[in-house]
Amino acid sequence: MTRIALEHLHKTYPRQAAPALERLSLEVEAHTLMALLGPSGSGKSTILKLIAGIEDPDQGDICFDGQSILRIPAHRRGAVLMFQKAYLFPFLSVADNIAFGLRAKGVNKATIQTEVQRMLDLVGLPEMAHRRPAQLSGGEQQRIALARALVVQPQVLMLDEPFSSLDPAVRQNLQEAVRRIQRELGITTILVTHDRSEALAMADQVALIEQGTLVAHAPPQQLYERPPHRQAARQMGIDTFLTGRVTGTTLQSQFGPLTVSETPGHGGEALYAIRPEHLRLGHEPGAHSLPVTVQSQIYRGDHVEVQVSLGETVLRVRTNEACWSNGKRVFLHLPPEHLFLLKLPGS
Ligand SMILES: Nc1ncnc2c1ncn2[C@@H]1O[C@H](COP(=O)(O)OP(=O)(O)OP(=O)(O)O)[C@@H](O)[C@H]1O
Question: What's the complex ipTM?
């Protein structure tokens, strides 16, 4: 039942010119999973380190259910952290690894035994109690690390890229397990990732972090389908932006006139975006098309990524056909219903 509030967090590491976090505020509702998504070095792990008490903020506050935790020592905050590597104790059995935190708390032997088995069942490895970490696969080690983190019944679970060293099948399997367990226990969880699909698949809310600041946060589908501004749209994989004035339903874009169905309600400059999978390529012009030149085509199994140039601008199109030869003049279709408005910078 823990709601986390990060309030104007500011952190500059010693001998660093730029702050790792710049007055960042964010709330994580109780029982939910918040994914922090952002490029390398954007400050995601620093947020976890501040919550865990590994580092202290220069300014700002961190509250659990309205109470500041900054004066509470790290080991009493009830926040556990799981990393990319499992860091299990190699000479202890799986059961002893999981029991470690309970022994440190002086919990009696019978309770420890029950709790360890409960955790092994929870992470789907009920028969593994007597194995050593070296006898487990990478995915199994991560499940044991999760069991070890959860056995102490923490208030907050923090996951720092816990799946990034695993192969895709194991990774998906563990993502699903973590999501199931998180929901079952209702534990407030923060997941750090730079994998967009992972954030979208797992989170109740996704927070986009860039250069130590919060760019946007919203439920995954909302953020993916309607990012609020260009910066968020870029992080959601969009790179086709159109600007210009709208008269009636015609956008006088930098590439030529285009029909839009959503209009800004003012006569000034407007900014539109369209997802790569909503762009269409064709050999014939149409009502909502622009002439482009094919630059390259990359076959990606479930889709083909085609890069086309429109004057100086290069755009990415996601299609199902691999028939676009380099240098060919074709037509890029922009369905009006998929062109959506973004906030203009400073608005
Ligand atoms: N202990 C430290 N001392 C000095 N600078 C640090 C330290 N830890 C992090 N930084 C710097 O702070 C910034 C934010 O780092 P942080 O690890 O929080 O980013 P991140 O988004 O988690 O990156 P990644 O995805 O690569 O793990 C980076 O510029 C990094 O170099």
Answer: 0.97
